[in-house]
């Protein structure tokens, strides 16, 4: 029997009693595992896996022993899987953070007429950050409640309180998530401003007074001048943080030999956040190019060194209007990034820029430039880091597409879940591109429980495969109503698995716990975790997440395996924004082709719904959609030239929409090399 919640605790952030994460029964997890994998394996592979699973789950066998250890662990821990999950998902991963792990939020394109405009925007943004930090410090942030499936439950708020108080410290084999919760050390009262690959300490509290927006602008102007007037070449130390984690850990140990470097590292690691003042990238400003710039900064020749990737929040303000947030993902999930970003943009709209010299701090001390001692060894490591980032920039195949044919309102009219519908559309797109189903990751929040993070919704269901085969092979099924029934079955299966995941009864975290329990007991790795099926199950060729917003912005991230796709989507009432990524080095993948198949699939699914549910004539609807798609593409291409003729508004150019319930919460699945 699964172990459900008897205990509860007062979440320090919400004040509401939250239950412990349940532990599914061994038999339920093993049965679900076989159901999830059968259609993704050859008959020979599945027969072998079936025997291995049967042996693992036999009475008195290894599986029961490991399950008993998890039962004991659950009694002792607030969340039995949290430490296992954090290490497996992030801290053990040796891949570089940009593209591979760190998601980004891309803000609306800003129209800065002069350099001072971008500094005004940055000062306004920092003012919003400090307001949000005040809410966090007072524990005054409203409690989140579950929306979508099984709505109304209070959610764990712990992740929010790591936004400005944590840091990912690189290690040779495993990173450490450092939380600044010491009562001995003073609270950080500075941010780090990156400008022209240099780092400056901007104190936001001076003489016990928080700087107002006018003072912040004054300090940013000083930083901009100091960065431009630096006589000596400045080593782009931020590049070191863009390398693989083991390489960065080695470089950091070399840096630490010099006291000057130790002091600079300490100031960066203890800051509230980074604000990166970027030079113009020189690229045409489209959604796709801005997404790529957020993900990697354009590489070492552009703004790739104007970053410090270990810090959870880096706010990017580009002189060319390319703005957004880069997020180090280990402390919190995407929903926290979304909520913080939306607060800031709404603050900047609702709170007009306050650049009057009222109650300012007189004689502001100049911001301090961080200094570095760069030995030949460090210079060599910088060169290596630059080469790796350059390769990553060239490798990324990014495509951001606004599908304007319809949005979630049409899907709701079919009495279907928008998230489940889009997940089935992604399965159809991949099948059309590659002719097979593959292991798919979609995150599901487990924040209904103490220290809850996420588990995996396995969207590549047998029901989804039956539907996509029927849609792509006319010989199988020709009757529309049969296809419609298969679509409803696929959506129902997706919804059922979603409920399993958000209630703590999915299989991925449980299997991870069993594997890690065996490792802690120093057992030989059980056969089930050496089996091809387990490796295939964790090779997430499709890494997906829904990141809905109420403000005009979108999220994106890179693929998590070399031959995979990252597919992030933002469903709105009448359109859906898709951010699709892959790697050029993979001969199997192509983001443009995937998006083309995705658009075709969404149109075909709409036609099917209209034919079966008495909607508009599909042929006429398709013609209208194609016209809308072409208009959208034309508007996107012409946006840069049009923007140049617009007058500069006082506030950031942001469209605020009414809030809509989200079905699941955002998450990027990051696979370690051992899972490839």
Automatic annotation (TrEMBL):
Known PROSITE patterns for this protein? ACYLTRANSF_C_1, ACYLTRANSF_C_2
Instruction: List the active site.
Output: 329 (proton acceptor)
Keywords for the protein's UniProt record, in alphabetical order: Acyltransferase, Neurotransmitter biosynthesis, Transferase
Q: What's the Enzyme Commission number for this chain?
A: 2.3.1.6
One Pfam family matching this protein: Carn_acyltransf
Q: Where is the composition biased (Polar residues)?
A: 639-653
Q: Where is the composition biased (Low complexity)?
A: 624-635
Is Protein biosynthesis tagged as a keyword? no
The chemistry this enzyme catalyses reads:
choline + acetyl-CoA = acetylcholine + CoA
Q: What class of enzyme is it?
A: transferase
Q: Which GO terms describe its cellular component?
A: cytoplasm; neuron projection; synapse
Residue intervals of the Choline/carnitine acyltransferase domain: 21-599
Return the annotated region ranges for Disordered: 615-676
Question: Which example biological process does GO assign this protein?
Answer: locomotory behavior
A GO MF annotation of the entry reads:
choline O-acetyltransferase activity
Q: Which InterPro entries match?
A: Carn_acyl_trans, CAT-like_dom_sf, Cho/carn_acyl_trans, Cho/carn_acyl_trans_2
- Hey, which family's this protein in? Belongs to the carnitine/choline acetyltransferase family.
Query: Its function?
Result: Catalyzes the reversible synthesis of acetylcholine (ACh) from acetyl CoA and choline at cholinergic synapses.
- Which protein, by its recorded name, is this? Choline O-acetyltransferase
**Biological source species:** Poecilia reticulata (Guppy)
Identify the taxonomic lineage of the organism of origin: Eukaryota, Metazoa, Chordata, Craniata, Vertebrata
């Amino acid at each position: 029997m699964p172990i459900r919640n008897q205990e509860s605790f007062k979440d320090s952030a919400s004040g509401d009693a939250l239950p412990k994460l349940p532990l599914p029964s061994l038999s339920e997890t093993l049965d679900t595992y076989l159901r999830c994998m059968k259609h993704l394996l050859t008959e020979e592979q599945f027969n072998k896996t079936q025997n291995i699973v049967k042996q693992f789950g036999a009475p008195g066998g290894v599986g029961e022993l490991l399950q008993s250890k998890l039962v004991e662990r659950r009694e002792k821990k607030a969340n039995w899987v949290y430490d296992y999950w954090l290490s497996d998902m992030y801290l053990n991963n040796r891949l570089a953070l940009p593209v591979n792990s760190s998601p980004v939020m891309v803000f609306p394109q800003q129209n800065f007429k002069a350099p001072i405009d971008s500094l005004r925007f940055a000062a306004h943004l920092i003012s919003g950050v400090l307001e949000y930090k005040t809410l966090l410090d007072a524990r005054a942030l409203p409690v989140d409640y579950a929306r979508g499936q099984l709505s109304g439950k209070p959610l764990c708020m712990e992740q929010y309180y790591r936004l400005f108080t944590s840091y990912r410290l690189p290690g040779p084999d495993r990173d450490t998530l450092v939380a600044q919760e010491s009562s001995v050390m003073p609270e950080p009262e500075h941010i780090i401003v990156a400008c022209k690959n240099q780092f400056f300490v901007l104190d936001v509290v001076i003489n016990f007074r928080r700087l107002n927006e006018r003072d912040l602008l004054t300090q940013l102007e000083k930083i901009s001048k100091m960065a431009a007037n630096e006589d000596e070449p400045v080593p782009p130390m931020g590049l070191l943080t863009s390398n693989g984690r083991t390489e960065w850990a080695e470089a950091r140990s070399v840096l630490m030999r010099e006291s000057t470097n130790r002091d600079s590292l300490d100031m960066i690691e203890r800051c509230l956040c980074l604000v990166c003042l970027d030079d113009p990238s020189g690229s045409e400003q489209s959604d796709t190019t801005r997404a790529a710039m957020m993900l990697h900064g354009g590489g070492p020749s552009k703004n790739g060194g104007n970053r410090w990737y270990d810090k959870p929040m880096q706010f990017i303000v580009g002189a060319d209007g390319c703005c957004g947030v880069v997020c180090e993902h280990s402390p919190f999930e995407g929903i926290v990034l979304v909520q913080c970003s939306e607060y800031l943009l709404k603050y900047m709209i609702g709170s007009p820029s306050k650049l009057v010299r009222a109650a300012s701090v007189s004689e502001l001390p100049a911001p301090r430039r961080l200094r570095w001692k760069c030995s030949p060894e460090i210079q060599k490591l910088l060169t290596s880091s630059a080469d790796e980032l350059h390769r990553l920039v060239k490798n990324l195949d990014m495509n951001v597409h606004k599908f304007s044919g319809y949005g979630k309102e049409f899907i709701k009219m079919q009495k279907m879940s928008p998230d489940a519908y889009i997940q089935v559309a992604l399965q159809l797109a991949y099948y059309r591109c590659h002719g097979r189903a593959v292991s798919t990751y979609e995150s599901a929040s487990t924040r209904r429980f103490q220290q809850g993070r996420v588990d995996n919704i396995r969207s590549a269901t047998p029901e989804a495969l039956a539907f996509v085969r029927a849609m792509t092979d006319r010989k199988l099924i020709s009757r529309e109503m049969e296809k419609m029934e298969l679509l409803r079955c696929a959506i129902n299966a997706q919804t059922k698995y979603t409920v399993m995941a958000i209630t703590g009864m999915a299989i991925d975290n449980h299997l991870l716990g069993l594997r890690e329990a065996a490792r802690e007991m120093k057992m030989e790795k059980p056969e089930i975790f050496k089996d091809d099926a387990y490796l295939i199950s964790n090779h997430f060729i499709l890494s997906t997440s829904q990141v809905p917003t109420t403000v005009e912005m979108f999220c994106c991230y890179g693929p998590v395996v070399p031959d995979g796709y990252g597919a992030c989507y933002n469903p709105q009432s009448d359109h859906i924004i898709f951010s699709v990524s892959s790697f050029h080095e993979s001969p199997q993948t192509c983001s443009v082709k995937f998006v083309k198949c995705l658009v075709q699939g969404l149109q075909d699914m709409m036609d099917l719904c209209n034919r079966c549910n008495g909607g508009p004539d599909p042929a006429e609807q398709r013609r209208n959609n194609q016209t809308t798609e072409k208009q959208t593409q034309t508007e996107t291409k012409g946006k840069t030239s049009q923007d140049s003729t617009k007058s500069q508004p006082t506030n950031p150019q942001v469209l605020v929409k009414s809030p809509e319930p989200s079905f699941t919460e955002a998450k990027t699945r990051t696979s370690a090399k051992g899972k490839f």
